[in-house]
Amino acid sequence: MILDDEARARLVNEVLYAAVRTWVGEGEKHGKANQATISIGGEICLTYEATNKHGYGSFLCKYKPKQMVEKIVAGCINVADELTFSYEIIEDSRIEKHQLDGFVEECYEGIVFRMACVAALSFITDFEDKLGDALEDGFSNSMIIGKAEFQSFVVEEVIASPEVLNAVVDVRADIDEAAKKADARNRRWLNKTLANFPYLRLPRGRGRPERVSEAEYLKAIEARRERGDELFIKGLAEDLNQKADTVRKALRTKGIDLNGAE
Fold it and tell me: Which residue blocks in 51-107 are alpha helix, DSSP H?
C-alpha cells in the first residue's frame, strides 16, 4: 500500500511522540532524568549524559531523533508492503513452514505503527549504551591507527631500501579482531533483547537442544512475553491500543488470536 505524504508525516509524528513520551516516563519510574525538550526549530531534542563504565570517558549529547524515526517508519512500511509473514510450527522433530498473506491491507497503519513504535523506543532507549560502545570502538580503532602509523614509519625509515621496495606490515589481523569484537557485542545485544519476545527462534549455543514438555514450553513463552511487555509494550500501551483492535480483527480472520484463544 502507498501512504501519501500527509499520512506518512502524521505517522512519523505519532511514533515519535509515543516513543519519546514512553522513554521519559520510564526514566521517571526508574529515577533517571531522561530529558526531552523542543529545539528552536521546533524539533524534539533528547539529552543523554553518562560515564562509560570501563573508563573511556564521559559524554553529554543532544540528539534530534525525528530523521531516524522517519527512516524507521519507512523501513516498517517496506516490511508491511511485503504482505507476507512466515512462521514455523515445531512438533516432535518435524518443522512445518507456513505463510500468512493478505492480512496487512486491513490494518496497514496499525501494523506499521506498532512495529515503528517498538523499534523507535528500542533505538531511543539504547542510544546511551550505544554511545558508550562507540567510545570503546573508537579507542580500539584509534589504537590500531596509532600502531599502524608506527609500523609504517619503521618500515619507511629502517627497513625499506632500494633493494627492498615491497616491504609491508600485515594489519589484517588487527582489523579482523576489532570487527569481531564489535560484531560479538552487537550479537549479544540482539540475542539478549530478542529473548524478551515469545515465538522467536534465536541462535543456540553449543550442544544438543533440550527437549521440553508442552507445559514447560508454554511457561517459557509466557515468561518471554512478560519481559517483552515490561520492556517495550506496557509504556506504549495507550498508544498501541488505539490501533490494536483493527490489527487483532484482521489477524483473527486468518485464525490467529493475539489474546491467545484458539
Answer: 66-81
Query: Distance between the two ends of the chain, CA-based, in angstroms?
Result: 30
Burial 225-236 (b: 16+ CB within 10 A, else e): beebbebbbebb
Contact 237, 114 (CB under 8 A): no
What does the pLDDT look like over 23-42, one tens digit per residue? 988 888 777 878 899 877 78
Q: Is the pLDDT of residue 208 over 60?
A: no
Q: Please report which confidence band the pLDDT of residue 157 belongs to, taking 50, 70 and 90 as the band edges.
A: confident
29/161 Cα distance (integer angstroms):
67
Count of CA atoms in the C-beta half-sphere (13 A) of 8: 17
| One-letter amino acid of 168 | V
Q: Which residue has the cell 584509534?
A: 142
CB-based contacts of 257, cutoff 8 Å, min separation 6: 248, 251
Instruction: Identify the residue with better confidence: 81 or 123.
Output: 123
CA distances from 191 to 23, 100, 200, 242 (A): 22, 25, 10, 30
Please state the domain count of the chain.
1
Report the candidate in 238, 196, 242 with the shortest Cα–Cα distance to residue 221. Answer: 196
Pairs from 181-190 (Cβ < 8 Å, separation ≥ 24): 181/140, 182/133, 182/137, 185/133, 189/126
Buried b (16+ CB within 10 A) or exposed e, 184-218: eeeeeeeeeeeebbbeeeeeeeeeeeeeeeeeeee
Within a domain: residue 205? no
Is the residue at 261 inside a domain? no
Residue 258, in any domain of the structure: no
